[in-house]
């Protein structure tokens, strides 16, 4: 299956052959002469423009311009060409790049000195400059770059230029070819038995996270499910941000937040047309409880009675609440930033503390229950149902004992068809207001009705908990959804 079109005006033998790519000249690409392939119907094919000239109105410029007109993803884009060719446009990126350089490149020099290093698809043969190479590729999106460093009092980036294939030394051609293979995923495109893998999925996680959305066993089950579906599944961290664009899809299994690398990487993937769960809109909508409350209320989804509080209204609202009342900061996660005020005196003390962290907080009606429902929803379909019981002697599912320890209650996972129909119906409606991704909807069921407490954009999927009924089928269902998203692109 064709996945890449490589455009070059130089000798083709410098680029390794591979069944997922075709190598064409600028003239053929511009004229749409690709041996029976109509480029107007190749929106899922990615274009790598390796022309030797990217100046305005050059053939290299027109190749990227026409790729964009044909709705094809292309590196470099026209906007990146303009950014790099007009040096004043990229000066704003140099402080960030020099910050990375200052951290990682400490080679001594006794006098002013200049050196030039080559970057191939975000990789360099100089190990100490790996981080700089990745960030430069991330910022400028040129397949081949020459980075000129200057040493005065310290090392700094003096100049960045596009690099032509003909400029690469012969002894570096194999390194360039290897970098191309890694970028296109070809290096990971076959299993030990020689079977070609269909797509390449990156799972973003944090190995050091205290309370991740998926434990290690669950992560391995995603890998296993991917293999069963003929997918290559790789674990990546925030330090691999430059490699995200090499994947066909991104799956975030790290606690998300808006002012956080998870949001930035989700946004980066989406902007490049790479399917991502959690998508940026879902992160925005779910991570802020003020937005979520307004969204659910506007669409008549039942929620506990909720009041928005700021420093100006704090005293006035205190005397209008029924106690106990639950106070929340808008962007708390994992039951953190959530407290229960038993009386007005508690409210005064707790509200003051929370308002130090956020300009706005929420006061919510306390609904007593022995457990919360968690309905997992994927693309509008309810896929699992769990009862999460309160931690022993506590009013929440999680009781945080200190910064690193907590205790939680028991759980029961049941077939979706055995969950109360009204719970499932309200959960799927709430999730549909957020998007078509993967969500965990928390609800309380009482004699007075069902109430949505929260919608999570990256719900917990732990081994032995959420998969308690479906088992491995749960992981296959989620990984199969990625295939659907990729093929819909």
From TrEMBL:
GO molecular function, one term: ATP binding
Keyword ATP-binding attributed: yes
Domain of life: Bacteria
Pfam families: RimK (PF08443), RLAN (PF14401)
Coiled coil: none
Domain (ATP-grasp) ranges: 293-487
Keywords in alphabetical order: ATP-binding, Nucleotide-binding
InterPro entries: ATP-grasp, ATP-grasp_RimK-type, ATP_grasp_subdomain_1, RLAN_dom
One GO CC term, this protein: cytoplasm
PROSITE patterns recorded: ATP_GRASP
Protein name: Ribosomal protein S6 modification protein-related protein
Lineage: Bacteria, Pseudomonadati, Bdellovibrionota, Bdellovibrionia, Bdellovibrionales
